[in-house]
Design brief:
By secondary structure, the chain is of the alpha/beta class. It has four helices and six strands; from the N terminus they run E-E-E-H-E-H-E-H-E-H. The chain is globular.
Length: about 120
């Protein structure tokens, strides 16, 4: 299943969604800031609302196409992490470029949400 949301304008965020062996993979492209936090939040959190409780949600967020992220993105990831944790699921981040990874490291989110160099490594960790 593939679902793509977002704007075509440069710098805006687009969100693609696929599933690999029951694991949701969200592929993000663009910039994550206060202007797109609702798009990201809707993509990650609203996806969980329609889920049946029989299978804990497992999610990988591919940040390899993200060129910028501020604290707005951190807040959304914390909320997503808490939501999947409440359902006994997990969230992993993959492919963050150095500038985005640095933001995750500065606030210590990489110690809470596992960060992997590639989507493949995040899927099999």
């Amino acid at each position: 299943m593939t679902d793509t949301r977002g704007a075509a304008r440069s710098g805006q965020l687009s969100v693609g969604r696929t599933a690999v062996d029951g694991i949701r993979v969200f592929t993000l492209r663009g910039e994550i800031d206060h202007t797109v936090k609702d798009v990201l939040s809707e993509a990650l959190l609203c996806d969980l609302l329609g889920d049946d409780d029989a299978v804990p949600p497992r999610m990988v967020v591919d940040l390899s196409g993200v060129t910028f992220m501020d604290s707005s993105g951190i807040n959304v990831f914390v909320a997503a992490y808490q939501a999947v944790g409440e359902s006994q699921g997990w969230l992993r981040i993959a492919g963050a470029h150095n500038s985005v990874l640095r933001v995750l490291q500065v606030v210590g989110l990489d110690e809470v949400i596992p960060c992997h160099p590639t989507v493949e490594q995040a899927l099999t960790a």
